[in-house]
């Protein structure tokens, strides 16, 4: 009987070993063609703002606050809600930097996400979104609770929604400065901040706490997911759960192809789009974070440093006893970096005031006047796609956009001395 049991046990484990899942192809290092395909996908997304509405308003702590909504992809059944806070002593004849604040988790957000932003943050236009399928809770503002439509879409369609919100702020808040856009967030909000910054070149500074950077080649993820599929044991932390839910499980079950599964992982992996991140960029992570492993930030920091991007353009802060949200105090460094945006226009104000772009709105072309010295001009649409780059421009120039569709475009004008010296919003009519 003992021999029979041993033989049966041996056969069981032999068959189990033969049936083990091998996901090597899914977790292989991405090719340049795959990276380019993700960028093409991002640029195809509709992130224009539709049906912008102010749902409720109040004044709290000396600041005017709105709950705003907009429809995603012009679909009235996909309405997205956010907080919008105006600067202290808001004057629509003045320009103000814009700050997007992205929350963590999947449980929605409340007023506290912006209520604690005091000091220099009171001089920003601040927007804080809920994500798809989540609540926006106004808490002490007593304006009710608003639920964004749609199903949860982590590190994918939530990015589209926040970029559309940003476009709504720029289009509807007089004085919101498209040349001074900052983002920050932690955990899921950190991942959203990374990815929206990689997708939209108008964002020119970011602060991220404990955000996941790599869902496709992060060390140990392949083995952990394979073991989970084979045994159901081991558990999954949030980044691993995203890998499993969005790619590994549907791929193993034959619901999506290998190429589709890899696309899902790569599009959530800012590690492979580090060259598109804004500078300055600041990253904070606790060394004993069991929710999002510290290696996510360590590997990105090592890659940035290897590429010659160091302080003050890129700074990484690691907290030896820090966990996920505890034992971490990035506030001073975060505030210093973001609040520098308040002074960015001072040295270029005279140059910018000499530059004109007319007519606006325009039908087919507009003319830029007032350029002295050598400038680089970029034409960028609302999704962040760069349509044209002109270098060495030092005089009047006519910009012909006859072949482009109607919509909102951003003109970036830079010289050798300043980054994003001048950004102007242009509206193309049919």
Walk me through this protein's architecture:
This protein has 430 residues and is an alpha/beta fold. The protein has two domains: 44-215 and 264-343, 3-Layer(aba) Sandwich (Rossmann fold), CATH 3.40.50; 349-428, Immunoglobulin-like (Sandwich). The chain has eleven helices and 19 strands. The strands form four sheets. Strands 1-2-3-6-4-9-10-11-12 form a nine-stranded mixed β-sheet, sandwiched between helices. Strand 1 and strand 2 form a beta hairpin.
Which spans have pLDDT < 50 for at least 5 consecutive residues?
A: 1-5, 7-18, 345-352
Number of strands: 19
Report the average pLDDT across residues: 88
Terminal-residue CA separation: 85 Å
Radius of gyration: 24 Å
The number of helical segments is 11
**SS content category:** alpha/beta
Strand order of the largest sheet: 1-2-3-6-4-9-10-11-12
Identify the overall geometry: globular
Set out the fold topology.
Blueprint: H1 2-18, H2 32-44, E1 50-60, E2 63-71, E3 79-85, E4 96-102, E5 109-110, H3 112-115, E6 125-129, E7 135-137, E8 145-147, H4 157-172, E9 176-186, H5 188-199, E10 203-209, H6 221-231, H7 238-252, H8 258-266, E11 281-286, H9 295-306, E12 314-319, H10 331-339, H11 349-353, E13 356-358, E14 365-369, E15 375-381, E16 386-393, E17 397-400, E18 407-415, E19 422-428
Parallel strand pairs: 4-6, 4-9, 5-7, 9-10, 10-11, 11-12
Antiparallel strand pairs: 1-2, 2-3, 3-6, 7-8, 13-14, 14-17, 15-16, 15-18, 18-19
Helix pairs in contact: 4-5, 6-7, 7-8
């Amino acid at each position: 009987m003992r021999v029979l049991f041993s033989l049966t046990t041996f056969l069981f484990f032999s068959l189990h070993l033969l049936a083990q899942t091998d996901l090597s192809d899914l977790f292989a290092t991405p090719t340049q063609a795959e990276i380019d395909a993700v960028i093409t996908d991002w640029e195809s997304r509709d992130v224009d703002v539709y049906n912008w509405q102010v749902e409720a308003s109040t004044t709290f702590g000396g600041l005017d606050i709105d709950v705003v909504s907009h429809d995603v992809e012009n679909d009235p059944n996909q309405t997205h809600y956010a907080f919008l806070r105006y600067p202290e002593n808001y004057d629509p004849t003045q320009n103000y930097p814009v700050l997007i604040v992205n929350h963590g988790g999947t449980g929605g957000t409340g007023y506290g996400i912006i209520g604690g932003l005091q000091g220099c943050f009171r001089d920003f236009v601040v927007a804080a979104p809920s994500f798809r399928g989540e609540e926006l809770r106004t808490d002490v503002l007593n304006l009710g609770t608003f639920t964004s439509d749609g199903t949860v879409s982590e590190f994918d369609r939530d990015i589209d929604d926040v970029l559309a919100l940003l476009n709504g702020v720029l289009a509807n808040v007089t004085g919101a400065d498209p040349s001074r856009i900052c983002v920050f967030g932690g955990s899921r909000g950190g991942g959203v901040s990374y990815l929206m910054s990689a997708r939209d070149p108008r964002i020119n500074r970011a602060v991220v706490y404990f955000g996941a950077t790599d869902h496709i080649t992060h060390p140990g993820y392949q083995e952990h997911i394979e073991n989970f599929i084979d045994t159901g044991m081991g558990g999954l932390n949030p980044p691993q759960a995203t890998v499993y839910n969005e790619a590994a499980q549907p791929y193993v079950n034959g619901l999506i192809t290998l190429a589709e599964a890899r696309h899902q992982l790569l599009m959530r992996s800012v590690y492979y789009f580090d060259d598109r991140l804004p500078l300055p960029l600041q990253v904070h992570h606790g060394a004993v974070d069991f929710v999002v492993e510290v290696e996510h930030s360590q590997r990105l920091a090592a890659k940035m440093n290897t590429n010659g991007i160091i302080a003050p353009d890129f700074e990484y802060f690691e907290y030896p006893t820090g966990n996920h949200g505890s034992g971490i105090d990035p506030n001073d460094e975060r505030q210093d970096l973001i609040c520098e945006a308040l002074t960015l226009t001072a040295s270029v104000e005279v140059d910018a005031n000499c530059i004109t772009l007319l007519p606006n709105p325009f039908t087919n072309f507009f003319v830029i006047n007032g350029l002295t010295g050598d400038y680089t001009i970029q034409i960028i649409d609302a999704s962040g796609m760069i349509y044209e780059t002109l270098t060495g421009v030092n005089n009047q120039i006519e910009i012909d956009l006859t072949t482009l569709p109607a919509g909102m475009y951003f003109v970036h004008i830079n010289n050798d001395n300043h980054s994003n010296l001048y950004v102007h919003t242009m509206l193309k009519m049919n």
